[in-house]
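Is FE2/S2 (inorganic) cluster placement plausible here? Inputs below.
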Amino acid sequence: MSEEVRWTNERFGGYRISQPLEEDIDLTHVGSGTPCGEYLRRFWHPVAMTEQLGSRPVPIRILGENLVIFRDLSGHIGLLHRHCAHRRASLEFGKIEKNGIRCCYHGWQFDVDGTILDTPGEPEDSPIKHRICQGAYPIHEYRGLVFAYMGPLEKKPDFPFLDSFDIDGHEMIPYSIHSPCNWLQESENSMDPFHSVFLHGRVNGPQFPGLEHFIALPVVEYFKRPEGFSYSHARRQGDLVMMRFHDHITPNMAQNGGMFQRLDNPKVFGRTSLTKWVVPVDDTNSRKFGWRHFNDADEVLRQGDKSNVGWEKVDFYGQTAHRTEEERISNPGDWEAWTSQGPINIHKREYLGTTDEGITLLRSKIKKDIRNVERGKDVNQPQGSEDRPFHTYGGDTIIRVPEDPVDDRALMRRLQREVAEIYFAADQYEGDERAEFVVRHITEKFGEQAIQVEK
Ligand code: FES
Ligand SMILES: [Fe+2]
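Reply from A.M.:
I modeled the complex. Tokens:
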């Protein structure tokens, strides 16, 4: 076997690294029985949009498994293995019944939990329906998305309710977008605040009008949480310092700040305007599901209006394949970046720099969690109910703090830590009380003038 060469330092040294290298199987293979596949199967994931569920069953593929999803005539949603338990005809050709679905081939009928309700060609007293079930998964429908739990039943967590699932004044618009690449690539984009500087700004010019402040190199602080990460990136314009908090709840859920937040006035404890999951379809395909949050506080521009969001449609610039070749080449967006890393990015061929701290943190946490699942341990995941939701931090805080002529980057680093400390201390409260705590403590710490809005 030839020696594994990951990089070259030779001029015109392409030949040295022309041998293909293997992908990181641990992080990228998602089928049942693989380490990552088993880990991913400990979480609830969105798998479809309710908008997809009409009069016909819908074939879908999640975590390398072929499935079928439908809403029966009683209104219950079924997520079943696609191939019939009898002789494996596809249930995508099944007939939706009052209870469950009937296979087209020999008429076996399955309830949404996989119970066999009818085997019409068999004798009346056939024991088949007591002996086996069709493979089925539990689902939870919420605000236009259908979530599924595809892991061992004895490990099934309650559906986690996050504070961002119900924010006053937010209209939540579900959407979904396919990417022909491994799930980790798109997921890592959310842990990489530096790409905005270049992809969305410096390389081909600003892609989001009014957001030119994102072209400045940010000062980034990462905060480790048992369930993932919260991180903040700070930028200054005059006396104003904008701190944008992101959530990355492992493995694959992310939230950012106000999508089109300007940097022109103070603001305290803004909330997210995008909640999303990157769900593996299989090793080389993924599907993002999420909600855009339309509201007057954090999403004032409402770019990509409601009619433009939804099933396989554009949520905002550069997120899908649905642009002309000319547009995609002359001004590539996020979608072009993460899909062009290949069907499965080869980590051994990457050369990581200081801006990749988020990527390294994410990969090592996921690896650690995979190992824990392999050892039979439970994995940390968000727990929350409608009364006591799991707290998230995605959103913007902008305060007025004069520049430090000696070391302003150190000042911005400190500001983010101090604000994060206040955010986390506010966790003892819910709803308005929590927001009031943050405002009160930011005012006490930085002074009234720090949050004074000027018209
Ligand atoms: S294959 Fe489905 S009923 Fe026979
Ligand atoms: Fe981006």
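Short version: The chain has two domains: 44-155, 163-451.
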